[in-house]
UniProtKB/TrEMBL annotation:
PANTHER family assigned to the protein according to its UniProt record, in alphabetical order: COBQ_COBB_MIND_PARA NUCLEOTIDE BINDING DOMAIN-CONTAINING PROTEIN (PTHR13696:SF96), P-LOOP CONTAINING NUCLEOSIDE TRIPHOSPHATE HYDROLASE (PTHR13696)
Domain of life from the UniProt record: Bacteria
This protein's name: ATPase
Alphabetized SUPFAM superfamilies for the sequence: P-loop containing nucleoside triphosphate hydrolases (SSF52540)
Protein species of origin: Paracoccus hibiscisoli
Length: 256
């Protein structure tokens, strides 16, 4: 069966769609068949990215590696038919969840083999995972962590495997080192209590956003005529390599 990756967080602006775009494109460029589902039925950033990629390739006559974009079905369970369709043709399926609590997002978490939760590196985003006292003591899991716990329980009852949960610290700044250490310490303590791994995510780089209108990522630059990589491009590429390595996906060897 396909390995299902869910990118989830109940807070907007944390980098979910950026993560989805780069993970699916990286896996496709490494030769894996990849399917994608955008569960944010209003904003659809991930879905539009894949549509932009197909349109750009058609317009320019290019044959870039292409994740398959599936559409949700109708009826009370729109997710299952779409997953069944993708599982027939894909090694990996990525589900990009909305930045809010929805039934679709709940369903997606129960089918996740790998869960990626991007967070901006601040206590505002940390509050989604845990409640803290004014002096920095972790009091207990918060709304999103409880939802993941419920998803894990449902998977266990169904005899499915565990969820490998990775929390990404996005937009790690070079300044405000005291806050950075405090967030890092709180995440390390919480990870042991509720069972997730922590890894650095993406920095704030223009390259992660500027290629969106054409459905491209920095891995596509040479194929579209960019021969020279800037230092920022090289650093961004390494961040993506580190993320793919940290995901520990089955059968994946990094080749970019």
């Amino acid at each position: 069966m396909a390995h299902i990756i869910v990118v989830g967080n109940e807070k907007g602006g944390s980098g979910k769609s950026t993560t989805s775009m780069h993970v699916t494109t990286a896996l496709a460029r490494m030769g894996h068949s990849v399917g994608g589902l955008d569960l944010d039925v209003r904003q659809r950033s991930f879905g539009r990215y894949l549509e932009n990629r197909a349109a750009f390739c058609a317009r320019m006559g290019l044959d870039l590696p292409m994740p398959v974009l599936a559409q949700l079905g109708d009826g009370p369970d729109p997710l299952t038919p779409a997953l069944e369709l993708l599982e027939k043709q894909c090694d990996f399926i990525l589900l990009d969840c909305p930045g809010s609590h929805t039934k679709l997002s709940q369903m997606a978490h129960t089918v996740a083999d790998t869960l990626i939760t991007p967070l901006n590196d601040s206590f505002v985003d940390f509050d989604l995972l845990a409640r803290m006292s004014p002096d920095g003591e972790v009091l207990g899991p918060s709304i999103y962590a409880e939802m993941v716990w419920n998803a894990r329980q449902l998977r266990a009852q169904a005899g499915a495997g565990p969820i490998d949960w990775l929390v990404l610290r996005n937009r790690l700044g070079t300044q405000q080192m005291h806050n950075k250490r405090k967030v890092g310490g709180a995440l390390a303590a919480l990870s042991k209590r509720i069972g997730f791994r922590v890894a650095p995510g993406f920095s704030e780089r223009v390259i992660f956003r500027e290629l969106f209108p054409n459905g491209l990522t920095l891995l596509d630059l040479k194929d579209v005529g960019t021969e020279t990589m800037s230092m920022s491009h090289i650093a961004a590429r390494q961040e993506l390599r580190d993320l793919i390595a940290e995901l520990r996906l089955p059968g994946v060897t990094i080749t970019f």
